[in-house]
Write a structure and sequence with these properties.
It is a single chain. 45% of the residues lie in helices and 17% in strands. It has 251 residues and is of the alpha/beta class. Strands 1-2-3-5-7-10 form a 6-stranded mixed β-sheet, sandwiched between helices. Strand 2, helix 1 (28-43) and strand 3 (49-54) form a beta-alpha-beta unit. Helix 9 (195-208) runs antiparallel to helix 10 (213-228). The longest helix has 16 residues, at 28-43.
Length: 251
Amino acid sequence: MKKVIVEKKGGIIYVKINRPDVLNACDGDTYNAIADAWEELENDPNLRVGIVSGEGRAFCVGTDVKWVKSPEADGYVDRLYPRMLNLTKPVIAAVHGHCNGGGLEQALACDIRVSTEDAHFGSGEIRLGWIPGGYGTQRLPRVIPLGSALELLYTGGRVDAQEAYRIGLVNHLVPADKLMETCEKIAGEIIKSAPLAVQKMKAVVMQGLDMPLTQAVRLEKEYFDWLMRTEDSKEGALAFAEKRAPNWKAK
């Protein structure tokens, strides 16, 4: 049985963690397979958006604790999370059930999070004597208020889907039967946008978060000027004037 199921359709790469017997806890093979999928998203010009989900009763409960104590686990975070950090294309997390530890970190590494009403979220590494190793200490306070992030990180506690939505951890809260439909709808709207502009938009927003405002607005101007010289910027304006869908060429 494949530990990660990957499918491609209509510009979307679907990545499903497939270890339902352990609530999609990830071992090295699983992490590597997910990283491979994101490499494919990054390098295939026909792929525009990723959607990551989990099989069975969970999105992902994080790293397989039994596996992480083995010698082969050394450096297991060194590939997946840097790959996700440097992705230039958007990824959407389709979250249901358990989303804990490294599962939460994978969701945080996504650009948009959609959750079912039965989901719950936590960062339980502190109860194992660890801290998050997949950038959770840095991403969580950038997504939700600092106090809420610190409480989750210090206590290893969990929040339900309603609280996650209230504090901004998830973008959308939907019934279980609408989870993938909602993710695909968002992905479809992204695909309608100019591919180069989406990539530059992601870059300027993410890089700008770590810059002083004066430096960040210079970066925005740099990317704006670059995009205005592309064929797609001319096509977008022409399509708008002609009241038709644009034919993007990523040039």
